[in-house]
Amino acid sequence: MPPAQRADGPSVRVRAPSKVNLYLAVGDVREDGYHDLVTVFHALDLADELTVAPSRRYTVRCTPPDGVPPGAKNLAGVAVRLLARRAKAGGPVAIDIAKQIPVAGGMAGGSADAAAALVGCAALWELDLDRRALTEIAREIGADVPFALSGGTALGTGRGDLLSPVMTRARLHWVLAIAESGLSTPAVFAELDRLREQGSPPRVKPVDTMLAALASGEPAKVAAALGNDLQVAAVSLQPELRRTLRAGEAAGALGGVISGSGPTVAFLCADAESAGAVAAELAGSGTCRSVRVAAGPAPGARVVPTGR
What we know:
Blueprint: E1 12-29, E2 35-54, E3 59-63, H1 75-87, E4 93-98, H2 109-124, H3 131-141, H4 145-150, E5 153-157, E6 162-165, E7 172-178, H5 185-198, H6 208-216, H7 219-225, E8 227-228, H8 231-237, H9 241-250, E9 255-258, E10 265-269, H10 272-283, E11 290-296, E12 302-303
Parallel strand pairs: 1-8, 3-4
Antiparallel strand pairs: 1-2, 1-12, 2-4, 2-5, 5-6, 7-10, 7-11, 9-10
Helix pairs in contact: 1-2, 1-3, 5-8, 6-7
């Protein structure tokens, strides 16, 4: 940011995780236009880093900028203004986002940035707010923002914003296949509604299967329980995702699932070594734009200590 726009003062750096939906059951559309969800969120160490600093006006800058809404349209900017109104404190800040989470990839990158902005500005302004108070504000911003605050592994209900922690005995290793282009979350939900009006696409198993698999600590059981009702809609909109799913499993992944509304495909692997081998083979398959390796569960949005 040009020095003329930034005010003198400290800055705060925050890291916020991406997520995959290990399980996502989508209910029918409600009167308010939303769907009831039952989902199991899992936070990954693939994270965005956000820096907030006092400024003469509100600004949001993202690196790289491709596909990220600028200024007031960015969820981080929305979060900061809402926090200032609720706390009746603070002032304009400059927000700089170092982007690692795929944009429009079903991994809640915008929500992670919003959560990071809440944590960062609460620290910058020295607000006396606990996580419960921040979570209430987070729910007003978006359904995935509360989980980006909490991290770990959690069962989400309602719109996905009502969370209960889920214990898991295993550290899970993932290969993420990043698609050439993103998908709009509303478009994927609308496509699922259309497909259900035309017939009865198969629905995921009860969530208890996934909860038991996580409690077992065995990656193979977790892989067998992966499921996402939105997957059929994402594949309908981007049929090439079928090739990606086949390629990852052929490369040796235990199982694969489209994360959230897609189009990122998350492949669960037996261990870190296996994830490296799967990533190498998938990268040469020609079925995705890029490949990333990640692990979870990871903590929610946290201030990064100075010097790290």
